[in-house]
Amino acid sequence: MRALITGSRGTVGSALRAALEGRGDDVVPWDRAAVPIDDYTRMHAFVEQVRPDVLFHLAAASQPSQDRAPEEESWLVNHDWTSELAWITRQLGVRFVFTSTVMVFESPGPYTIASRPDPTAGYGREKALAEARTVHQNPHARIARLGWQIGEGTQGNHMAAWAHARGRVEASLRWIPACSFLEDTAAGLLQVAEAGPGLYHLDSNDGHSFYDILSALQRTQGTDWTLVPTWERAFDQRLLEARIRMPRLGERLG
To answer: Where in 76-196 does DSSP place strands (E)?
Structure first.
């Protein structure tokens, strides 16, 4: 399989690229310096030249722009670029997989595919609008909502690195976050790419609190942050899904 990936150097993108290359697939990263995301003609020509079997759109607005304000860059990456890619892949007959987020929900969960997004502002609202736009532009698209990613080490955009950077973390015993290990998310995205069009949830949490998870990571990764249990934030954020095989978080944490 030939895969084109936006955000291939990001947290999830790096894991997905490793998974694809590990099974012998051909991976082409999207270089925004070479193919600007605000130039439709060049984007269409690039995708047509690469001729991928699937385009994974994972990019986030993490790179500052000299030409646009941060909020304009965020809207361009999260919404407008997504819309254009959905249309281009539809025109060229390329499978399109767009990663969204559990942040499209603000009311308590757990959430099913039938749950209605209700964001009021910010990143979650941009992603919710991008979901709707994707379906409008490309009814054959796959949309995968993700939770917080779990990785190893002290660097990167994942749960353990976040806790390490803070040093002292007040973790709720009543918050059940949507989350999964990076390699499991990558494997889930490969399943989504092979599945039919539609909306999917990728979440491994089978009922563990934020405090439980950080305690396990602290034990298994040998980290040095200070963990303080709290009873604040009573919130079930799980993304429920029966069609995609995700390892149970309890088994992964030991």
So the answer is: 95-101, 142-146, 148-150, 168-172, 175-176, 179-181
Assigned domain for 221 exists: no
pLDDT at 63 (0 to 100): 62
* DSSP conformation letters of 15-31: HHHHHHHHTT-EEEE--
Instruction: Count CA atoms closer than 13 A to 229's CA, side-chain side.
Output: 7
Q: Does residue 157 belong to any structural domain of this protein?
A: no
Q: Please, what is the average pLDDT of the chain?
A: 94
Task: State residue 5 phi and psi, 5-degree precision.
Answer: -125, 130
Q: Check residue 66 and give its pLDDT.
A: 57
Q: How far apart are CA 188 and CA 202, in angstroms?
A: 7
The total number of structural domains in the chain stands at: 1
User: Whole-angstrom Cα distance, residue 30 to residue 43?
Assistant: 10
